[in-house]
């Protein structure tokens, strides 16, 4: 069944999550990467929330709906591109899959993204959620920069298809300079600045980024 349906693509960022189905030229949904939970739950850390799960577990909102809920506590599970609250992220993904994509996860393969310097532990947590909580038949986790190079193939101006290049990825909470050689990220040469769109807007300043990419 999974092979006959298009894979689901989910790109989770600090500020926004882009999602849709493989084969489309653009995301079908772009939603803020936030979740609104009951005020009574906001003082409890994620380990305690797992123990105290109950009715409040079903009373949450994500994306634009979360921002419009002043009586709820609005949380952002991703900080500087890294998922920090896995309990909230699992709930966020629940709405992404069932409410937005309207998909049965058992029937679709999933392609998900990760930052260039993601830890093996975070990758394992994500796989655990997708396989054990949502029972997906297959999961591929790719670095955003590699996917950006692959996406450039659709441009008519690209004469030669290659997965080698330097990607500047400036998001809501972090900016990366990522060298990619034959689809492999050169981790030792990656440069990260904890400055993104959210930081520049909040500070009401214009930042000049000088990112050392490669040293000869």
Automatic annotation (TrEMBL):
SMART domains: ACTIN. InterPro entries: Actin (IPR004000), Actin/actin-like_CS (IPR020902), ATPase_NBD (IPR043129). It comes from Myotis myotis. Gene3D superfamilies: 3.30.420.40, Actin, Chain A, domain 2. This is Actin related protein 3B. Belongs to the actin family. PROSITE patterns: ACTINS_ACT_LIKE.
């Amino acid at each position: 069944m999974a092979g006959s349906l298009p894979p689901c693509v989910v790109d989770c960022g600090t500020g926004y999550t882009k999602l849709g189905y493989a084969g489309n030229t653009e995301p079908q949904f772009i939603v803020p990467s936030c979740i609104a939970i009951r005020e009574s739950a906001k003082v409890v850390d994620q380990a305690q929330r797992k123990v105290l799960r109950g009715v409040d577990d079903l009373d949450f909102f994500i994306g634009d709906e979360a921002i419009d809920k002043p009586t709820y506590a609005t949380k952002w599970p991703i900080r500087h591109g890294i998922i920090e609250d896995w309990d909230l992220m699992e709930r966020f993904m629940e709405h992404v899959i069932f409410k937005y994509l309207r998909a049965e996860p058992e029937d679709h393969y999933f392609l998900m993204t990760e930052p260039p310097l993601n830890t093996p532990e975070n990758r394992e947590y994500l796989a655990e959620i997708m396989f054990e909580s949502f029972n997906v038949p297959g999961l591929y986790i790719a670095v955003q920069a590699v996917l950006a190079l692959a996406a450039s193939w659709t441009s008519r101006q690209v004469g030669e298809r290659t997965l080698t290049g330097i990607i500047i990825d400036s998001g809501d909470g972090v900016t990366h300079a990522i060298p990619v050689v034959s689809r492999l990220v050169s981790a030792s040469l990656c440069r990260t600045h904890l400055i993104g769109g959210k930081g520049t807007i909040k500070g009401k300043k214009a930042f000049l980024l000088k990112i050392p990419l490669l040293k000869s």
